[in-house]
Design goal:
- The protein has 196 residues and is α+β, with helices and mostly antiparallel strands.
- The protein contains 8 helices and 6 strands.
- It has helices at residues 2-13, 17-23, 82-87, 108-117, 119-145, 148-158, 168-175, 179-191; strands spanning 28-32, 37-39, 48-61, 67-73, 78-79, 94-106.
- Helix 4 (108-117) packs across helix 5 and helix 7 crosses helix 8.
- The two termini are 30 Å apart.
Length: 196
């Protein structure tokens, strides 16, 4: 699994094999069971997780105890509470494991060392943060203004590879709609012969 992470880093960030070898001591592997909570609200998020196998999610819990899912992360996706990770603020999110998983995690010292070694890595990290901002802005717009059908179709586009692995009640939570509304949307799309 560490080889999978190494390949991802070298293929995507511009780090060379030699540069990566200087950072290997800052890379940690963790096997986690379904249901494991990796981050709780109000903790400091000092780790960013890269999923090698399985699936994680981030979410908030409102005053009524209802979960609101922010992100799913499956193979080759990153997940963290970025505000907490970058600014050392108490986390607003929970992160837990929804399928048995193998993850690699890094601390900020990995990112600082990688940026010092390689301007390409620094540009990769900046672009990754910008893409995250763009995705979150798009998500907010959908949550506020899009129909349930449009939200669901966008979800399928974003998570095409893993849609069938995610329980429907979690998809509804991510979309900000009730499970009953999601069921109606799915029935209507099936009636139109839509196949995800």
């Amino acid at each position: 699994m560490l080889e999978q992470f190494k390949k991802y880093i070298i293929d995507n960030t511009g780090l060379s094999e030699n540069e990566y070898s200087e950072l290997e001591h800052l890379v940690y592997l963790l096997e986690v069971k379904k249901g494991t909570v990796l981050l709780k609200e109000n903790q400091i998020c000092n780790r960013a997780f890269f999923v090698c196998k399985g699936m994680l999610r981030s979410y908030t819990i409102d005053e009524m105890g209802k979960n609101h899912i922010i992100q799913f992360a499956s193979e080759n996706w990153w997940i963290a509470d970025r505000s907490s990770f970058y600014f050392d603020e108490p986390a607003e999110l929970f992160i837990d494991v929804i399928e048995d998983a193998v993850v690699v995690y890094i601390h900020k010292d990995f990112i600082k060392a990688a940026e010092k070694l390689s301007g390409k890595f620094a540009r990769f990290n900046t672009l990754a943060l910008q893409k995250n901002i763009r995705q979150m802005q798009k998500r907010i717009n959908y949550l506020l203004a899009a129909s349930a059908e449009k939200k669901y179709l966008d979800f399928i586009e974003t998570y095409r590879e893993i849609t069938c692995r995610i329980p429907l009640q979690m998809i509804a939570s991510y979309l900000g709609i009730t499970p009953e509304s999601l069921s109606r949307v799915r029935k209507e799309l099936a009636r139109k012969n839509f196949k995800p």
